[in-house]
TrEMBL record:
Name this polypeptide is given: Beta-phosphoglucomutase
InterPro entries: B-phosphoglucomutase_hydrolase, Beta-PGM, HAD-like_sf, HAD-like_SPP, HAD-SF_hydro_IA, HAD_sf, PGP-like_dom2
TM segment ranges: none
Molecular function GO terms recorded: beta-phosphoglucomutase activity; magnesium ion binding; sugar-phosphatase activity
Record-linked Pfam families: Hydrolase
Assigned keywords, A-Z: Magnesium, Metal-binding
Marked site (Important for catalytic activity and assists the phosphoryl transfer reaction to Asp8 by balancing charge and orienting the reacting groups) residue numbers: 115, 146
Family the entry assigns: Belongs to the HAD-like hydrolase superfamily. CbbY/CbbZ/Gph/YieH family.
NCBIfam families assigned: bPGM, HAD-SF-IA-v3, PGMB-YQAB-SF
Cofactor(s) required for function per UniProt: Mg(2+)
Positions annotated to bind substrate: 8-10, 24, 43-48, 51, 77, 115-119, 146
Length: 223
């Protein structure tokens, strides 16, 4: 029986994913690293340090910095990112999300955030959504980033639910992989070619229909 929704944040509730990518591109450029087009997809959904390490590998600089220097680079990126998100308001909530959350609340579902972003509480407050969520996973409490299932299992545990009682929403391939590894039903938002492992797929958030998603979830568990 469905009892909860778990959401990634960046690129699902709001398009802050573009701000993350812009900040990473600025840092990469400063380091003299050219990021290929595929980097944007590869970086989505990853933790801050996993993203930094990936960028350094693109530039063959993975052995050029110690942990303290990496932490400083990650902090530099985050500082730039935070300047981008200062202008966020409820107008930046992606289409389809307000009605989806409203329907979930009306049906008594519990809601959680499973984002690698340490800025999730700040972003939710800027969007006016903070009070709607019952739990937010603290990424600093985790040992592994997506595609490891740890963050989705943590969200499920915070809601005190089982894997077959939740639906989780993602826009990144590593996020879908994490959801499936956690044994949960995965809703993918984006290109089918990148999110083929999702159990239910829409091309954008405006297509997120509560009744259709729940029906797909029920069919999945009736098999």
């Amino acid at each position: 029986m469905l009892k909860g929704f778990i959401f990634d944040l960046d690129g699902v509730l709001t398009d802050t994913a573009t701000y993350h990518l812009a900040a990473w591109h600025e840092l990469a450029q400063r380091l003299g690293i050219h990021l290929p087009a595929a980097a944007d997809t590869a970086l989505r959904g990853r933790s801050r340090m996993d993203s930094l390490n990936l960028i350094l590998r693109y530039g063959h600089q993975e052995n050029d910095y110690d942990e303290a220097q990496k932490a400083a680079l990650a902090a530099e990126k985050n500082q730039r990112y935070q300047t981008f998100i200062q202008s966020l308001t409820s107008a930046d909530i992606l289409p389809g999300i307000p009605s989806l959350l409203k329907n979930a609340k009306q049906q008594g579902l519990k809601l959680a955030i499973a984002s690698a972003s340490k800025n999730a509480p700040l972003i939710l407050r800027r969007l006016g959504l903070f009070a709607q969520f019952d739990a937010i996973v603290d990424p600093q409490s985790l040992h592994h980033g997506k595609p490891d299932p740890e963050i989705y299992r943590a969200a499920q545990e915070l809601l005190k639910l089982q894997a077959d009682e939740v639906i989780s929403f993602e826009d990144a391939p590593v996020g879908i992989a994490a959801i499936k590894a956690a044994g949960q039903f995965a809703v993918g938002i984006g290109e089918a070619s990148a999110l083929a492992a999702a159990d239910y797929l829409v091309s954008n958030t405006a297509q997120l229909d509560y009744d259709q998603i729940v029906a797909a979830f029920e069919r999945y568990h009736a098999r």
